[in-house]
Batch of 2 targets.
Target 1
Amino acid sequence: MDIAAASMSLSEAQFSAAYDTAMVKKSMDNMASQAEALINDMLAAVPAPGQYGFDVYG
């Protein structure tokens, strides 16, 4: 009976680890897509460079 309990405990631990890993991966994928959207928004907010390449703040 002890072997069966140990086997069930091991199986439960493996499932828990796999579930936790899947949840962390999904969270990281969501964060990556949010970061990509933020970067694209920031790039869109920057005005295009001028036709002439000189600094007016000099």
Target 2
Amino acid sequence: MAAVPPLPLRFVMSGTRVDDLPPTRGEVAIVGRSNVGKSSLINSLANRKNLAKVSKTPGRTQLLNLFELPDGTSVMDLPGYGFANAPAAVRAKWPEMIDGYLLGRANLHAVVALVDAEVGPTKNDQQTLAWLRSHELDVKVVATKHDKVKPSKRDQRRRDLAAGCLLDPKDVLWVSSAKNVNIDELRARITEWLAPVADWHPPAPTRKQRAEARAAASVEPPEPVDEYDDEDEWN
């Protein structure tokens, strides 16, 4: 397919509850286990190295991390499930935070579920897909780390991975952030899935929000913090 321009994503904020987040004209959420490579994928979509910082330690994404496009649509990076190097007290809050977001976010149009192509769908992946489907969320499965699967094994792995996700192989998009495989296709699909709500009107900012915006505009932007790290880990 023809080259698709990078998505001009910008990091907006991190939050612990869906109520913390600003409204959106349309949103796609990205979910996956904690070493599937979510941050690397987000960086590839935007063609930026440090938009979502990459960590070699799984589970560094511990909050709801919102990235916005110029048209008011957005992409959400959710904490990874499975093994995560985070305190037990933090991990204990994740189910309520993630479930609250997925079931309570207005204009959430699709959930992109990442599965490691090298490993295949784990029990956690299958449980997550079952939960998403049980709540009638629009799930799109994307297999990451295409480059890690030997060419001679790819056809069989495609069939096995799709079967483990209860899908036909053609319904799973294989990508590689490292080798830029199908990143253009995923950009195009995300743009289609976002489908901005035409009659959307954001609420007027409150007096406090206007004051905070003026204050923020009068100071130098801070250095990016390491709150929304994820992983290109263990590659």
